[in-house]
Structure formats: structure tokens, C-alpha cells
Amino acid sequence: MVDKLYTFFLFGLVFIIPIEEGGALGEGLTVALLCGIGCLVFFLCNVVSGKKIVRPNVVFFAALLFIIWSGVSILWSADMVSSIARVKTLALDLLFAYFLFSKVSLNGVKNPFLVYVWGCAVALGLLFLEYYRGPSSMDVLEEGRFTAANMNQNNLACVLAVGIALAYILFKSYVTNKFGKVLLVGFILLASIGIFLTGSRAGALSVGSFYFILLFMERRSFFSRKGLLFIVVFMFAIFLLSVFVPQYLLNRVSEGQNAGTFLLRVEIWKAGFEAWIKNPLFGVGSGAYAFSLDNPSLYGRVAHNTFVSVLVETGIIGFFIYLFLWGGLVRKFLLKSSQQSFFIILFLIWFPFAFSLTLDYAKVTWFIWAILLAGFYPNKRRAIPLGAISEVKSL
């Protein structure tokens, strides 16, 4: 019973990722926080009752080191309050990632993937509802871009793009019944349209990358029934884009480097590097990027680039620790895993957003880390029995 409650709260955390920004209950209380507390309580109950725990992968220790270094950076931070808040968020993210890593290692990825996709489906429903009603006054200021649950449009595009990747993995390796496969294909189509409705350039690039990868992976089956299905889905997606996505949003996502927002971000990056060069080894302090910029017109703006943010905030030391995290994943999947294609899909879906959003502390990033570290085991569970803590086994 305790383990079921632990799973319930953990899956609640996964489900809320696509709509987390709309999960506020007031007075600093959120649905995600309640689920997180429930996870921690029942995880500790499992430990006390002698249930088996999974020893963290070495990458988790690197993540812990990154958080510790971020905490140390409070001592010289340009804004101590922001640094404390960032370290707190990172610590909670690490706990979430470990809980998910433990569950996936013992029970497989199918259920967490399905829960995440269902959360994305709810976000899609809210997005299309706003599309039906027309953009709100706030969204008009954002060039008529649509969103859901008060989420930032780019953040929403990111979580939906990850949902597309997971839906494809489910379609290929986990869901066997035809009705389930039809639902997944439908989700991929609708999520593709939804991303364009957000007006996110990184989202459009991510969707384009997904279909390109799909084209490459299915190239040998073009003249089979599976190949025909791909062609139909691809052409139908283009048709839906032309019908439902307003022309001004299509124009926006095709502006590229000439876009005003891109040029503004280049200025933000330049200002960030100017702040970083003053303390290149240690950085300006975790979470303090926005308060370290000397340019008054840019003060208070975040980096909108994960790697620039990590370098400027945590310095060369923190940046290399962060690269080690991703290096561990790359090594695991490119050298040891039989599921390299799934890693490539997820990574290339996430990567465009890393250059337009600050994702080092985003829960979706830690979600990806956790499931990749635990590994993919299609159509079977990992047979690791629950036992005493003294029998802890490294995976």
C-alpha cells in the first residue's frame, strides 16, 4: 500500500510537468509541491520498512556536486536571494530525478511515459481551448501566441516536444494494441500543431528535427505499410499546419536570426559574457545572471540559453561539471546501450530549446536525465526484487 501511494505521488509529479506553471494553489502552495512531499514521505516509509533502494548512478553524484557548487556560489553571488532560490529548486529537482530513476530502474519506463503524455494531452486540450476562444489580452502582447495553464509559450513548446518523442518511443516499443497506437499517432499530430500555435521558433525547429529523424529511421520501410503510414502522417501534419496555424505565427517561426527577439538575446548573451569575464572561474552566482548585467536596459533579463547561463552563473568549474553530466549520458547510450536511437530522439528534441531557454533547473530536463540514466527496456520489466536495504545493488 505504501509503495502504491509513493508511485501515485511520483506519477502525479510527472503528470503535472506539462502544466506545472498553472498548478498554483495560493500562498506558495502548488500541486507539484504537494506531490513532492507525498513522494518523500512514502519513500522514507519504504526505506524504514526495509524495501530495496537503488544506488544512484555516478552521474547523480556529479549532479549533487553541481548543486553543492551552486550553493557555494551564494558566497559571491550578485543576488543572494536568487541564488538561494535556485539551489533550492535544483535540490528538489535532484530528489525528483532520483525518485523517478529508482522507479524506472525497477519497473520500466512505460508507465512514466504514458503519464507524461497524458499530462501533455491535458495541456494540449487547454491550448486548443484558448485557440478556440482566441488569444487573451496578455497573449496579444506576445504577438498573438497561444498557451495553456499560464505557461510561457516556449516552455509549453518544450514539454510538448518531449511528449512527442515519448509518444513515438511508446508507439515503437511499448504499446502493442492498434487503438493505443492510433491515439499516439493522433497525439503526435496534434502536439505538432500545438507547438506551432505557441509561436516558438525552437519548438518549430524541434518538431522539424523529429520528423527528419523519423524520415531517416524509417527510410528502409518506405515501400511497406509502415512507410506509407509515415508519409500519410507527415502530409496530414503539413495540411493541418496550413489550415489551423495563423499565418502570422508561421511567419514568426520562420524569421530565424533576423527576428527581433533573437537579436535581443544576442545582446543579453554579450552582456552575460562581459559579467562572466570579471570572474571566469567562479561565475556570478547560481541564478544571478539577470542581476549581474551592467547594461541597464538588459538588467533583470535571464540568459535564454542553458549553456551560457551555466557558464556565466557557475563559472568554468560549474560549466565543466554540467558538461560531465551530459557526457555521462552520451557515453552510456552511444557506447553501451542498444537504444541509441531513442537517446538521439530525446536529445535532439531537447537541444534546440537549450539555446533559447534556461533549462538547467527545469523539471523536464531532470525528467529526461532520470529516464535516460535508468535505461530503456522495451516490452519487459527489470527483474529486480524488493529486499532489505543491506542488499542494495548498483545498476
For the secondary structure, the number of strands is 4
- Residue share in β-strands: under 5%
**Alpha-beta content class:** mainly alpha
Strand order of the largest sheet: 1-2
Contiguous runs where pLDDT drops below 50 for at least 5 residues: 137-141, 377-395
What is the rounded Rg?
Answer: 21 Å
Helix count, per DSSP?
15
Written overview of the protein:
This protein is mainly alpha-helical. The chain has 3 domains: 1-53; 56-107 and 260-376, no CATH class; 110-254. Helix content is 67%, strand content 2%. It contains 15 helices and 4 strands. It has helices spanning 2-16, 31-48, 58-72, 80-107, 110-133, 137-141, 153-173, 178-197, 201-217, 225-244, 247-253, 260-276, 306-336, 340-354, 363-374, and strands spanning 24-26, 29-30, 54-55, 393-394. The strands form 2 sheets. The chain has a two-stranded antiparallel ribbon with strand order 1-2. Helix 2 crosses helix 4 (80-107) and helix 4 packs parallel to helix 15. It is globular and about 60 Å long. The model is unreliable at 137-141 and 377-395 (pLDDT under 50).
